[in-house]
Amino acid sequence: MFSVTVFTIEYFIRIWVSDITKEDKTERLNFAFSTAGIIDLIAILPFYLPLIFPFDLGIIRILRLFRLLRIFKLGRYSSSLKTIKYIFKETKAELSITIFVTFVLMVLSSTLMYHIEHDDQPEKFASIGDAFWWAVATLTTVGYGDVYPVTPWGKLLGGVIALIGIGFVALPTGIISSAFIDKIQSEKQLKKSEEKIKEKIVIVHIVEKILMYDF
Fold first, then answer.
1. Using CA atoms, how far apart are residues 90 and 104, in angstroms rounded to an integer?
2. Residues in the chain where the model's pLDDT stays below 50
3. What is the spatial distance between Cα 141 and Cα 124, in angstroms, rounded to a whole number?
4. What Cα–Cα distance (Å) separates residue 204 from each residue in 10, 191, 194, 200?
């Protein structure tokens, strides 16, 4: 109740002050229908709706899941989350290529595994879709062990796919980590340059005061 009260007050304050920078009153409506405004509204609605409308208990439990959207409210306050968002935006092309190649590899491996293992395990490899679950678990190096090949050719293919999966898991990790390091280094350099500029400004002010002083 305390959290909902705080978020409710914050929601209405945000709507009220959204037109401070601009005198246009439509700015309040723009914020209310923006992504951030809708997330803020959905985060508090599950608390008030059962008080206004009689709902079935199952529906109320589903509505409570929307409270998880409050997590997204942290993004506007956390510089770390903003950095992560920036990194994913900057590496979108590289990650898209990696995801596409991984998807193609999963389709190929699941198709091959289906044709190899279907006759020996018709229940576990009943279709290519069922084999796709094995491909996901193997390529991501999770290996739950609920579905696995038993034929020699199936084991050979499974080993090859598992080894390839190690490299494909490392690809997006390397892309994201390198972008993260570059972002941190650029921010450090920017801070250093800002500090140097501030130092120069202070020195200039001191020199100006010395020159203007009447001896």
1. 24
2. none
3. 19
4. 44, 20, 15, 6
Cβ neighbour number for residue 115 with a 10 Å cutoff: 13
Q: Contact, 11 vs 44, CB < 8 A?
A: yes
H helical segments located in the chain: 2-17, 26-32, 35-52, 57-64, 79-90, 92-117, 128-139, 152-212
Going from the C-alpha of 210 to that of each of 66, 199, 205, 213, the distances in angstroms are 63, 17, 9, 5
pTM of the model: 0.54
149, 116 Cβ separation under 8 angstroms: yes
pLDDT at position 108 is 92
Task: Check if the beta carbon of residue 176 is closer than 8 Å to that of residue 201.
Answer: no
Q: Which amino acid is at 101?
A: V
**In the block, residue with structure tokens 């679950």:** 133
Cα separation, 27 vs 112, whole angstroms: 56
| Residue given tokens 């206004």 in the structure block | 52
Q: Helix or strand or coil: residue 145?
A: coil
